[in-house]
Amino acid sequence: MTAAPAPPALLHGVGDRALTWLDKHREFFRPTDQDRASGAALIERLKPIGELAINMQVLFREGVAGSRQHARAGQLLDFTWRELLDGGNVLAALQHEEPFSPVPLEVYATFHELGHRHPALETALEVVRRTATWTTLELVPNRRLGVLNAERRVQLPPSADFDQALAATWLGRMPEPWTVQYHIAYDLTHTIFHITNWGEAPERIPAALADYLARYLPAWMDDWADMEHWDLLGELLVVDACLPRPTLDGQMWERYAAAQSDSGAMPIQHGMPAGDPEEVFDLVHHPTLVAAFASAMATSRSLSAAAAG
Fold first, then answer.
1. Looking at residue 73, what is its pLDDT?
2. Alpha-carbon distance values, 177 to 47, 147, 165, 168 (Å)
3. Structural domain boundaries of the chain?
C-alpha cells in the first residue's frame, strides 16, 4: 500500500526552520585567517559555503519561498558572495594557490548562474583548463560529474564526456541494490544532484536509472530512517523529489520533520549534539543545509502535483 504524500505545509515548514537557523548562524561559515593560510583548510571551509549558495539558489529557482524566506535567502546569497567570498577574490586566490583544484570552479558556478562575475578567476580557469592535467585529474566518478556539471553551468566546453562519466559511477552501473552502504549512498545521491543540476532538470535522469531508483529508493529510505541518519535520509528525499513520480512519503517526512530541533537545525544522526556553538555548527550545518534543499524540492513537486490535479 502506497503511503499518502506529505502535506505541503509540513514540507515547507522543515525548510523554513532550517533557513532560520542557517541565517542566524551565518557567521560560522566565514573562513578564518587560519583557513586562508592553508589551501586544504580553505577548501574544506569553501564546501559548506558553496552548499549554502546552492540551497539559496534552489529556493529562488523552485519559487516556493514566501516573502520572508525570499528576502532572507537573498540576503544570505549577498552575504556569501560579498563577505564570505570577498566578491570572488577568495576563490581567485585559491585558484592561484591550488590551480588544479576543481573547488573554485564548482563554488563559482552557482554565482555565475546568478549573474556574478570575477574576470581574473575566469581567466585563470581558462588557462588551467587548457592543460592535459585538468582532463586527467584522478577524480572518483561522481566527482568527475560534479566538475562537468560546473563546467556546463559556467558555459565552458566539457573536459570529458558526461554520459561516459555517468556510466562509470556506482549508480550508472545499477548494481545489486542491497550494497547501498554509507559511502555508496552519498555517491549515489550526488550522482543524481550532478545529473539534474541540483534538481533543476530531473528529466536528465535516464529512464532506466529512474526506474531503478523508483524500485529501490523506498527501501533505502526506510533503512536509513531506522538508523536515524537524518543527513543521508534528507539527501535521499531530494532524490525522491527528482524522480518522475516522487512518493513524497508522508510518514517518512513526518519522521524526518520530527528529528529537526526546535532551533531549526537538523542533527546528522540520532539527536542534536551539545557543546561549543562552533563545534555544534560544524556537526549540523550539512544536514541542516540538506533539510532546506529537500524541503524546497519536495514542496515544489507537491505544489506542482496539486496544480496538475
1. 94
2. 29, 26, 20, 17
3. 8-308
What are 61-93's pLDDT values in tens digits?
999 988 899 999 999 999 999 999 999 999 999
Burial of 35 (0-12, 13-18, 19+ CB in 10 A): middle
> Residue 270 carries which side chain, given as an amino acid letter?
H
Cα–Cα distance for residue pair 26/39, rounded to 1 Å? 22
Query: Residues 176-204, buried b or exposed e (16+ Cβ, 10 A)?
Result: eeeebeeeebebbbbbbbbbbbbbbebeb
Cell of 147: 566538475
Are 91 and 118 in contact, with CB atoms under 8 Å apart?
A: yes
Burial of residue 94 (CB within 10 Å: 0-12, 13-18, 19+) is: buried
C-alpha cell at 64: 516556493
CA gap 139, 105 in Å, rounded: 15
The cell numbers describing 230, all together, are: 537524518
pLDDT digits (tens, 9 = 90+) for 86-124: 999 999 999 999 999 999 999 999 999 999 999 999 999
Contact 297, 238 (CB under 8 A): yes
